[in-house]
Amino acid sequence: MTATWTAKLSELGIELPNVAAPVAAYVPATKVGNQVWTSGQLPLIDGALPATGKVGAEVSEEDAYGYARQAALNAIAAVDALVGVDNIARVLKIVGFVASDPSFTGQPAVINGASDLMKEVFGDAGEHARSAVGVAVLPMDTPVEVELVVELKEDA
């Protein structure tokens, strides 16, 4: 077992990005008791979306999987900036939104990008409840948005 989540991220070659600046009136993450809830995170890379459009039309399911992974990484970064990633005890829930073409029904496979990342980084502590929701449109025409809820260690 890896000593810390920071060490695990390093072992996996994953570097947490800078926290994305909010695009409206909210904070990236908030601590409530022994939990941290993130705002919806977009798959921003260096402040820009890698793609726009609907999954199943302009965006492939495979690409959207990667965008869900990036959005989840941005959510981890928001938790890290607030309380430190090493204070995470476990992942409780992911809510994933997929901007979908009306005929697209593969939202669960897309949000697996976020879920698989949690399992990869946090192992058994990354197992979580989840919702994968298809929607007509998301902010900035992003294909995916991910929210994360984590439980903190007792001394965090």
UniProtKB/TrEMBL annotation:
- Reply yes or no: does the keyword Phosphoprotein apply: no
Q: What is its EC number?
A: 3.5.4.-
For the Endoribonuclease L-PSP/chorismate mutase-like domain, which residue ranges apply? 8-152
Which superkingdom is the protein from?
Bacteria
Pfam families referenced in this protein's UniProt entry, alphabetically = YjgF_endoribonc (PF14588)
MF terms from GO for this chain are: hydrolase activity
Q: Which keywords does this Swiss-Prot/TrEMBL entry list?
A: Hydrolase
Read off the PANTHER family from this record: ENDORIBONUCLEASE L-PSP_CHORISMATE MUTASE-LIKE DOMAIN-CONTAINING PROTEIN, ENDORIBONUCLEASE-RELATED
Know the name of this protein? LysR family transcriptional regulator
